[in-house]
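pipeline: protein-struct stage 2 | run 1193 | Regulator of protease activity HflC, stomatin/prohibitin superfamily
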Amino acid sequence: MIPTYIIIFIIVVLIASGLFIVKQQTNAVIERFGKFTSIRRPGLNLKIPLIDRVAGRVSLRIQQLDVIVETKTQDDVFVHLKISVQFLIRPDHVYDAFYKLQNPHEQITAFIFDVVRAEVPKMILDDVFEKKEEIAIAIQRDLKHAMLEYGYDIIKALVTDIDPDEKVKIAMNRINAADREKIAAQHEGDAQRILIVERAKAEAESKRLQGKGIADQRREIARGLEESVDVLNGAGINSQEASALIVITQHYDTLQSIGQDTNSNLILLPNNPNAASSMLNDMVTSLVAANKINESSNIDKKKLDKK
């Protein structure tokens, strides 16, 4: 006969083999002779020793699958897109998730490749960067619809990286640098134009003030000459003699000023005693002749207008 303690030991071993623990956020799939019998929840569970077995454990936590997809854009640029998909198994569809898919990661990867290679070839490279959120939404929408049948729920799809060919990246950097240089040149040109305009305004203002100064100077000279003529007339010198005296005085003052500067160009004018009077007479004669010509022209013009 078998000793009692051996029987007790066997019973304890059988009971111990029938007990098992399921962790939180995990479900256990139980099979009996290879056939599905039940799904056990978290905590301490009991199965029939030697008959039932734990076929597998299914995690209900959110999982992430990273997939790198190589595809071509509309402008014939090959890019690598890193897609991150976050998914979980629905608690009420553990049976479908465990039995319907042999390798769920491969199945999800295949769907991701299919969606990306359907969306990206419709875009140029710049649009891929700008519309990566649209690509992610399309992946999540199509993948969610496809995987619900198998008990998987797609929480989020993200395009985490876009990596074009190295030569394309260098070309894009060169384009960006050229655009920045163009903008810098435009700003520099605007600054130069503003500087030139302001310089021209300053020069115009300077010329205006200079002209005003010269006009004021000539006005004061004319006033001084007028006063000088009045003084000479008061001394008994007629206007013509006074004008001749003033001209000859200015003539000698000019010669004196020229002689003070060794780099000045000297122009010799007639300086005999009658030179100033002759010069003044010539100037007066020229002015009178010019006035007569202008008056004659105005008369002829009036006659023509009457005709």
